[in-house]
Amino acid sequence: MTNSQNVKNCWTKIRKEKGPDLFVDHFYQSLFIKFPAARDLFPSNIETQKRTLLATLDNMINGIDYIEAIRSEILDLGRHHKNLGVTAEMFNVFILTIVESADFASNSTLTDAERTAWEEGFREMANIMLEAF
Ligand code: HEM
Fold first, then answer.
1. Are 106 and 17 spatial neighbours (Cβ–Cβ below 8 Å)?
2. pLDDT in tens, 10-25
3. Can you list the domains of the chain with their CATH numbers?
């Protein structure tokens, strides 16, 4: 992944500005407004899921140059999502909301290149997950 430095810069800005907690709060709030049907897939208390998303982001950002090396784990994650009732359509909204929340949590300081890199990083992961659908 050639844009890994931009993804890392983006995450650094989030850590420096509003922080990961505000990022993840904004993400779920905004996801459920855009896609109310997705709310029912999650347990009523999503605090654990918020931690999981942040841990996934840390892993993704550290491993972004080696995504092919963890392809089989990502495929398993895809199968898990299919079993949960997640649809391919939800991935587009999910990724859009991730980028928007990243911008929000960095006080709108992301450059176009950073936004694109963030989107492409998630798209790459989502495309592997969707192979399991
Ligand atoms: C690139 C896209 C995505 C990534 C990297 C991702 C990552 C993850 C991870 C790591 C977990 C935890 C799995 C476990 O506990 O074993 C999870 C759970 C979950 N994800 Fe995703 N996910 C993505 C897309 C989506 C989408 C599009 C939806 C639907 C709106 C979704 C809904 C869920 C739900 C409902 C759970 C289970 C929550 C729970 O039972 O606590 N995910 N996701």
1. yes
2. 888 998 999 999 999 9
3. 4-36+47-130 (1.10.490.10)
Summarised one tens digit per residue, pLDDT across range 30-54 is 999 999 999 999 999 999 999 999 9
**Structure-derived torsion over alpha carbons of residues 65, 19, 55, 112, reported in degrees to the nearest 10:** -30
Dihedral sign (CA 59, 75, 85, 104): positive
pLDDT number for residue 65: 77
* Residue 25, both tokens: 């709060």
Nearest ligand 1 atom to alpha carbon 35: 30
> Tell me, what DSSP letter sits at residue 44?
S
Return the residue matching tokens 């892993």: 59
Pocket of ligand 1 (CB under 6 A): 38, 41-43, 48-49, 52, 56, 77, 80-81, 84, 86, 90-91, 94, 122, 125-126, 129
Residue nearest to atom 36 of ligand 1 (CA): 42
Return the structure tokens found at 96: 């859009």
